[in-house]
Structures are given as structure tokens and as C-alpha cells.
Amino acid sequence: MAMIGLLEVFVAFLFFLVFKHFFLHKKSPGQPILKSWPVLGMLPGMLPHIPRIFDWTFEVLEATNLTFFFKGPWFSGTDMLFTADPRNIHHILSLNFGNYPKGPEFKKIFDVLGDGILSADLELWEDLRKSNHAIFHHPDFLKLSASSNTIKLKEGRDTTSSVLTWFFWLLSKHPHVLTKIRQEINTKFDPTYLEKLVYLHAALYETMRLYPPVPFNHKSPLKSDVLPSGHKVKAESKIVICIYALGRMRSVWGEDALDFKPERWISESGELKHEPSYKFMAFNAGPRACLGKHLALQQVTRLKQCLLSFSVSKMVLVSQSLRRCDSY
Ligand code: HEM
């Protein structure tokens, strides 16, 4: 018995050493970022990073020149191409849109979305898009949304609350940004012309660049294709567009990509800078771009009173106690 016990301890220790050596050590330059194992594919290398999957995807994509192929366990159907390359994104979401529906897998995984526009594809999506477009551009809908803070359609409810949560969290970390927003509101607020609040818009865009409410987009080509990055994609394969990673890429946003800097959105003449949607993808890009973008921005910029009375010190206390909870 004692012999078996010792053997078990030895085998467990051996497994621990192998695990530590292959999955937890830092890769030296030249080594592949993700090793593909027989049967298990790249899954073992990904598992330790599941709790920080968005940041890990960003790190792998940055080290693999913005696109990498993930090999899943054999026969699991989880092989996927991950990309945050703006050229590929433009190709998939706009130039060759017809070849890239979300695919039946998306509908299965996101069953909770039901048969609404967010999960629909092809003809059904076209019909829903037309009817939604008509509603969103109807004069009565526009009048109602301009006079109300309470329009909450299910497509936009969670995204808007996610943006606001990150926005106030970032303001608590960057009080000088809040001061500038308040100065702008006090001097320029005009309920009929909210676009005047350039700095507030810039701070919101900057929040959505770093913390997009929809961090991934899934596509599945109808026909085989070659992406601008040179990667081949087979019909019915899976492609994941990494929106979270895209917003943090130094090659796309510059060396200060990880910093929260609303100023990057303001041109020299003091106007809001336009960035192409395949670079700033918070509202998606191409024909499936968000229909509620204008409404969402209008609702958020109307939070004048909230922004004027928001207390950074209270927020700091809350985030400190959250951090204490995290460390338990
Ligand atoms: C800051 C807030 C918002 C963000 C960041 C946002 C972002 C997005 C994104 C990324 C998509 C594409 C989803 C996908 O295809 O997987 C989308 C689609 C959509 N959004 Fe928004 N959204 C916001 C607010 C809203 C609001 C307030 C509404 C409506 C009142 C709305 C209506 C829609 C609709 C109808 C679609 C489907 C478009 C289509 O598939 O053709 N969104 N949104």
C-alpha cells in the first residue's frame, strides 16, 4: 500500500513538472506561442489562461502578427482562426460580406438570443434588418427617443449598461478626464445639439475601444476563401474576430494603445476624429453595423446630471473594497 501511495505521489509530481514546464513557463523568442499536442491540440496551452481569456487572446494575436489558427482537440469541431487584423476584418465584414454569415454554430451557442436580428443570417437577417431599419428611422421613433431617456430595446440594453459601467470605472481611475468632461458640460451643454460635447464623446469612444461590450464576433464562410493576411479559410470553418484585442493593438493604435486617452479621438481643429469601423469595431462594421449607435450615444450623453454629481471618492472606495474582495 505504502509503495502504491509513493508511486502515486511520484506520478503526480511528474505530471506537475511536465505541466509547469510546457504550459506555465515564459516562451522564449522563436518558440511557437501555442504548442499543438496530439489528440488535445492547443487546448492544454489555453486552459491556464481561461480566467483572463480576452487578455491572453490579445497577447497571442499581438505576438502572431494579428492572426492565428487555433487547433482544438481532435473531432471536437473547435478549430478556429482568430484575427484582429483590420484588413481581414474589412474583407470579412464589408468587401466579401455575402460569403460570411454568422453560421449555424453561432445560433446553437447563442440560443438565448432567440430568432431575433442578432442571431439571424442570410434572407431572414435581410428581412429583419429592413423592418428594424424602418422602425429606427421612423419619425415617431426618432421623436420619442429624442425626448426620452428610457427607450430600452433588448438589442441595446446590455451593451449600453456595459459601456456605462466601464466608463464610470475609468473616470474613477482618471479624475482629470472627469474634470474636463464637467468643464465641457458646464460651458457647452445644449440638449438639441449633443455633438457639441466632443470631449465627452471622445471619452466614450475611448471606453468602447478598450472595453467593447461585444468583445468577439463569429463568422463562418460559405465558400473557401483567402484572407488579405494570406490565411486560407475553408467553407464552414470558424472565424473569430477579436474586437477586444483589436482595440489594444499597438500596430493599430500606436505605442500608447493600452492607455486611456480620450485626446486621441480629437483632431487638431478640435473635432471628433473618424476612425474606420474595421479599426474601431465597438458598433460592428459593414452591413451588420449597430442600428442603435446614434440612439445609444444620445442616451449616454444625456446623463448630464449623473456626470456632474458622480463622486470619484465614493467610486474609489467601492473599487478598493472590490479589490480587497478579489484578493480573498
Ligand atoms: C453603446 C451601446 C451599443 C453598442 C456598443 C452596440 C454594439 C453593437 C454590436 C457590436 C452589434 C453587432 C452584434 C453582432 O452582430 O454580433 C450591434 C447590433 C445591433 N444593435 Fe447595437 N449596440 C449598442 C446599443 C444599441 C441600442 C441602444 C440599440 C437599439 C435601441 C441597438 C440595436 C442594435 C441592433 C438592432 C443590432 C443588429 C444589427 C444587425 O444585425 O443587422 N444597439 N450593436
TrEMBL record:
Source organism, top-level taxon: Eukaryota
Organism (species): Brassica cretica
InterPro entries given in the database record: Cyt_P450, Cyt_P450_CS, Cyt_P450_E_grp-I, Cyt_P450_sf
Protein name listed in UniProt: Alkane hydroxylase MAH1-like
Keywords: Heme, Iron, Metal-binding, Monooxygenase, Oxidoreductase
Cofactor(s) required for function per UniProt: heme
Family in the record: Belongs to the cytochrome P450 family.
Pfam families from the UniProt entry: p450
